[in-house]
Write a structure and sequence with these properties.
Helix 3 packs across helix 6. The protein is 23% helix and 34% strand. It has a 6-stranded antiparallel sheet with strand order 17-18-19-26-21-24, with no helix packed on it. A 5-stranded mixed β-barrel has the order 5-8-6-7-10. A 4-stranded mixed sheet has the order 11-13-15-16. The protein has 11 helices and 27 strands.
Length: 474
């Protein structure tokens, strides 16, 4: 029995300003209208498994669930979730997933580990490689997938294979894993023909992996097991115990297990693969014009050459430039030399160091109940557009330092305002003074759209005291 396990945790800082901490790379919508997360789910479902397990941060659960709901899956595939309270890298995440699958299917179940942010178009070739990896996993191997390098790439780790030791029809024995190399080393690896890019995809039986984890990284194994034993496993979705999981070391599965395990195989992937690790990679998905320019959105390019321009909601014009990245979002604009695409993460590091909100949030912020968009803000005021999904509700809350005025634009809203509960239709409104307990719910069958006007001497999102919440937020 093969169970795909989708890992979704990385922030994708090299794709800022579209990828941000609260809405990271797996949820970026590609030119064809689907996100990387959705494509990964469909690729996993094409294997016709009994179940698919997604491991993600608890803050991403509702976004993930909504993204999955937008794609059509083969009936009968059970979607299961395992929520991490904090990120602890791939070794603890995969170990927790293995414990979850062992509880459900036993040690003999085979887990196929798939990062949620890879792009693979050749599903048939991918399926063929998975079948070969599954056969090796049945023989007790820990299997990784290697990608034949197409250039001297310095941004990937590499796997050296023993070409003389073939395992089954498609597998090779692994000699060693090597870190991201220098340019000279990468060219040497490419010329040798023995090296593959480390894709970060794995296949192994649950029992073999947990045994090797205990042997190779006993402290990690014990800490994950302790967190699992402290976790309430009869709830849906299963959220790993926060206090115990936070004590686990931050370590990748390569360091913890794969580099030290005894029976490790690599299956060379004969399919196209990209981890969409930079704007250069994402830009390559857009057809180029005669001048080498690639454009997403509204743009006018005059005397412009070899540029990538992405605009979300306004016109971008360029004149007399070349070799630029221009990525425009409602609240942040990136302009960079295309050769520096891998260095965009340094901007995010600087934003985080200064406490700038754009490292974490977009102007439109996703919440379990829907979204809010900041339309305008200034001294003592902020204006938001709030969309509440059918049947959803915000928490019962109050604010110390701000008042709010709600105006319903469309749909209907059931509002708790202090001691009163009222229902508002379009064009009706309610005023909530600071310190008043309030709640907004949508009792209708269509989205409720509202305009919220905040006023007060402090309008930060942390001025929320939640009294009740349907989504487990404190």
């Amino acid at each position: 029995m093969l169970i795909p396990v989708i890992l979704s945790g990385g922030a994708g800082t090299r794709l800022w300003p579209v990828s941000r901490e609260a809405h990271p790379k797996p949820f970026i919508v590609l030119p064809d209208g689907q996100s990387l997360m959705q494509k990964t789910l469909l690729r996993a479902a094409a294997l016709k498994p009994e179940a698919i397990l997604t491991i993600t941060n608890r803050d991403y659960f509702f976004i993930t669930r909504d993204a999955y709901a937008e794609v059509e899956l083969t009936p009968g595939v059970a979607l299961d979730y395992l929520l991490e309270p904090v990120g602890r890298n791939t070794a603890p995440a995969i170990a927790a997933g293995a414990l979850r699958l062992r509880d459900q299917f036993g040690d003999a179940a085979t887990m196929l580990v798939l990062p949620s942010d890879h792009l693979i178009s050749d599903v048939a070739g991918f399926t063929e490689a998975v079948q070969a990896a599954g056969e090796l996993a049945e023989q007790g191997y820990l299997v990784t997938f290697g990608i034949a390098p197409t250039g001297a790439e310095t941004g990937f780790g590499y796997i050296e294979a023993d070409q003389a030791r073939k395992l089954g029809g498609a597998g090779l024995s692994v000699r060693r894993f090597v870190e991201k190399p220098s340019r000279e080393k990468a060219e040497e690896y490419l010329a040798s023909g023995r090296y593959y890019w480390n894709s970060g995809m794995f296949c192994f039986r649950v029992g073999e992996f947990l045994n090797e984890l205990a042997r190779c990284a006993p402290a990690v194994s014990e800490a994950v097991l302790a967190a699992w034993q402290a976790t309430k496993r009869n709830e849906q979705p299963v959220a790993i115990d926060a206090e115990a999981f936070a004590r686990i070391a931050d370590i990748s599965v390569d360091y913890a297990v794969m580099e030290k395990a005894e029976r490790v195989a690599v299956v060379p992937g004969r399919f196209d693969w990209s981890d969409i690790g930079s704007w250069q990679a994402l830009g390559d998905l857009v057809p180029a014009d005669a001048a080498g320019n690639r454009v997403q959105g509204a743009a006018v390019l005059v005397d412009t050459k070899d540029c990538f321009v992405r605009s979300e909601d306004r016109l971008v014009a360029t004149l007399g430039v070349e070799n630029l990245l221009v990525v425009d979002t409602p609240d942040a604009l990136l302009v960079a030399d295309r050769s520096r695409a891998q260095d965009v993460k340094s901007i995010v590091q600087r934003l985080k160091a200064s406490g700038h909100e754009s490292a974490r949030l977009h102007r439109t912020v996703h919440r379990p109940w829907g979204t809010y968009t900041v339309l305008e803000e200034g001294p003592r005021f902020k204006i938001k557009r709030i969309v509440v999904k059918s049947g959803a509700s915000l928490s019962l809350q109050y604010h110390h330092r701000r008042s709010e005025h709600w105006v319903v634009v469309s749909g209907s809203a059931r509002i708790v305002n202090g001691e009163r509960e009222i229902t508002l239709a379009a064009d009706q409104s309610s005023y909530i003074p600071a310190g008043t307990a309030h709640r907004l719910a949508n009792p209708g069958e269509v989205d409720c759209v509202m305009i919220e006007v905040q006023s007060g001497d402090y309008l930060g999102e942390d001025d929320i005291v939640r009294l009740e919440d349907n989504y487990g937020r404190s």
